[in-house]
Write a structure and sequence with these properties.
By secondary structure, the protein is of the alpha/beta class. The chain has ten helices and 15 strands. It has two domains: 6-131 and 298-328, Quinone Oxidoreductase, Chain A, domain 1 (Alpha-Beta Complex), CATH 3.90.180; 136-274, NAD(P)-binding Rossmann-like Domain (Rossmann fold). NADP nicotinamide-adenine-dinucleotide phosphate binds at residues 47-49, 134-135, 138, 162-163, 165-169, 186-188, 191, 206, 228-229, 250-251, 275-277, 316, 319-322.
Length: 329
């Protein structure tokens, strides 16, 4: 049992307003349903989708109602389990992905679906694991759109990762290198050394003409692009792709969806594919294991206490985080 009836939470009560619209409240500790667990929270990580929902970019789907406690990616300790939960118990240290519809991460306690809750070993910290659910799973699922074996036994390919210094990009670089791919990455000048240190073979400063062209300095054509930013036109990607190259667009707008459908209809060899991450217990387990083995790390941009969650929110909204923005409880 929580032992406490109320908790500190951070929520918003309407669309827009950014960090200034987050309000600190004292509300009831939630009660887990039969397939849920109650967590005493240790850390949460912010994803751009969290503030895009606040902006109204996913309306009318999300949020389902106001007021809404945002954030889905969390780590904590189980203090209560629902009546049907069998594989988890009170006292387990875990990482969870809360449902997009429920949110709940910016609070001292949260209910998580048991089906998306994974035990983490002591060597994997709360902050490290809270970074994983959306960002690392997106990188993993993007790389899996072609044959990719993360033990390095598969066929190596030429991979471009745009915005490689961001939450998704830094995981994508590391995962691509585990698969033995040749990685070209784009990021700002200040992060070039970091991105190289995580394994990228060549790094382009996106603010230079060479970076904007996306051309591989070693003349490679990309079999796969993990595209983690916006405002890069197909005409820039196209000449850099191999004959069957594909661009996996993690930030798809209407243009991507229309062009992607057209390419399928016309049997184009070069493909453009929108990707929305699919929450997966198996993927989360796999990622936690990689962190445990020291093969994958979470780069933390900054840590903020829950009492200053609005600073974390503003940091993520600014669009210049290097790795994950973490809120600690
Ligand atoms: N489809 C999905 O399921 C899914 C899942 C996860 C994320 N996403 C989306 O993917 C995008 C990336 O997410 P994220 O968490 O990685 O974001 P993020 O952490 O906020 O990314 C920030 C980083 O991007 C870099 N950057 C910005 N514009 C760039 C450009 N034109 N070229 C190269 N680097 C650039 C910034 O570098 P500087 O500071 O140097 O500018 C900064 O380091 C977001 O739009 C997010 O919503 C989608």
């Amino acid at each position: 049992m929580a032992g406490r009836r109320t908790m500190h939470a951070v929520r918003y009560d309407g669309y827009g307003g950014g960090a200034a619209a987050l309000e600190h409240v004292e509300i009831s500790v939630p009660v887990p349903k039969k397939n849920e667990v109650l967590l005493k929270m240790e850390a949460a990580s912010i994803n751009p989708l969290d503030w895009k929902v606040q902006k109204g970019m996913v309306r009318p789907l999300l949020p389902p109602k106001f007021p809404f406690i945002p954030v889905t990616d969390v780590a904590g300790e189980i203090i209560q389990i629902g009546s049907r939960v069998k594989n988890l118990k009170a006292g387990d240290k875990v990482v969870s992905m809360l449902g997009y519809w429920n949110g709940g991460g910016l609070a001292e306690y949260a209910v998580a679906p048991a089906s998306l809750t994974i035990c983490r070993p002591p060597v994997v910290s709360a902050a490290e694991s809270a970074g994983l659910p959306v960002a690392a799973a997106s990188a993993l699922q993007a790389l899996r759109t072609m044959e990719t074996k993360f033990d390095g036994t598969g066929k190596a390919a030429n991979v471009l990762i745009t915005a490689a210094s961001g939450g998704v990009g830094l995981y994508a670089v590391q995962l691509a290198k585990l698969a033995n791919h040749h990685v070209t990455a784009t990021c700002g000048a200040r992060n070039i050394e970091l991105v190289k240190s995580l394994g990228a073979d060549e790094v382009l400063d996106y603010k230079t003409p060479e970076g904007a062209s996306l051309k591989s300095p070693s003349g490679r054509k990309y079999e796969l692009v993990v595209h983690c930013t916006v405002r890069i036109d197909w005409s820039t990607f196209e000449p850099n792709l191999s004959a069957n190259g594909k661009v996996i667009d993690l930030t798809p707008g209407l243009g991507t969806i229309v062009r992607s459908a057209w390419k399928k209809l016309t049997f184009s060899k070069k493909q453009l594919m929108p990707l929305l991450v699919v929450p997966s217990n198996e993927d989360l387990k796999f990622l936690v294991e990689l962190v445990k083995e020291g093969k994958l790390k979470t780069v933390v941009d900054s840590r903020h206490p829950l009492s200053k969650a609005e600073e974390a929110w503003a940091k993520s909204m600014d669009g210049h985080a290097t790795g994950k923005v973490i809120v600690e409880m």
